[in-house]
Amino acid sequence: MKTTFITLLIASVLLGCNSDSTTQNDTSTEESAAMAVGQSAVQDNDSQKDVVKVAAGSPDHTTLVKAVQTAGLVDALSNAGPFTVFAPTNAAFEALPAGTVDDLLKSENKEKLADILQYHVSVAGYPLEYLQDGQKINQVNGGDATITVKDGKYKINDANIVGTVKASNGIVHIIDKVILPPAK
Predict the structure, then answer these.
(1) Is the pTM value of this prediction over 0.70?
(2) pLDDT computed for residue 102 by the predictor
(3) If you placed Cys at 119, which of 30, 56, 146, 181 could pair as Cys (CB 3.0 to 4.6 Å)?
């Protein structure tokens, strides 16, 4: 009887250890897979959307989302932030000279596209009420953009801010024009 009890105890311990290591290995494998593809691969349907998911969920920002994917910026913008993204609408991209968007989306223009997109992002959280007339905001690409406030309307450079959406890692200000970085 004593031998049976000891045998059962040892078997229980071994099975318990074995299932824990399997769970740990499964968890490690899942974490490694998520790390391998970046923050954007983390599945979270309960939390507030990050700036990329806000744009991806908007039918008016499909061109921006495609550009962000092409430039390889999805993971960077899915990180903790805070970011302020000035997000041009599809109509803003369509207003560019014919062929501009198609040209920028070519693989040989990835750096130029990334520079333009990074000019639309600040590493800080700027709610609309914190923006002031004449304020200079440093953008991720190293350039400065200027805020204009007149009669309660806000602009960044010459683009109107037409809406704002709060995200888990910052703020998305919807703009009606693509803003271009100053020449370097």
Answers:
(1) yes
(2) 93
(3) 181
